[in-house]
Amino acid sequence: MMQNRKLQAARDRRDAGKRPLPGDNLLLLAAREPHNPRSLPVPTEPKSGSRQARVLEMLRCWESVTIEELARLTDSRPFQVRGAIDALRKKAHYIRRVESQTFTLRHVERLAAV
After folding, report:
1. Number of structural domains found in the chain
2. How confident is the model at residue 90, as a pLDDT?
3. Helix (H) or strand (E) holding 42
4. pTM of the model
């Protein structure tokens, strides 16, 4: 029920030409409807060799990965990995939590193709 309300609110904002809320375009794309063209976030790439770049590379290679695995593979501490994930989210990368500590990377372009 709550999902239907959010989807209807996203449709209303799109039809009125208003700026979408952060999850609006993902809801619209999941419902196989056109996105709100006012702002579709474009992920920006981090600097090469940085911790963010290494975390992003690991998320692209694997289906899902835990923070502990990312910390071990990038020679970082868990709090540093969480900071890199937060920074990547701010750069418009759609990283979602699959389970309690498992993350996966989904791009808006991939969801649009679904």
Report:
1. 2
2. 83
3. none
4. 0.56
Query: Amino acid identity, residue 30?
Result: A
Domain identity same for 72 and 32: no
The 3-state DSSP class for residue 35 equals coil
Q: Which residues pair with 65 in a beta bridge?
A: 103
User: CA–CA distance from 112 to each of 30, 46, 78, 109 (Å)?
Assistant: 8, 23, 32, 5
Provide the residue range defining the domain that includes 17: 1-40
The rounded distance, in Å, linking the Cα atoms of 6 and 9 is 5
Residue-wise pLDDT tens digits, 61-95: 887 788 888 899 889 998 999 899 888 888 878 78
In a domain, 46, yes or no: no
For 15-50, what is each residue's pLDDT tens digit? 888 888 878 888 888 888 887 777 656 778 889 999
CA distance 64 to 69: 10
The two structure tokens encoding residue 20: 């979408």
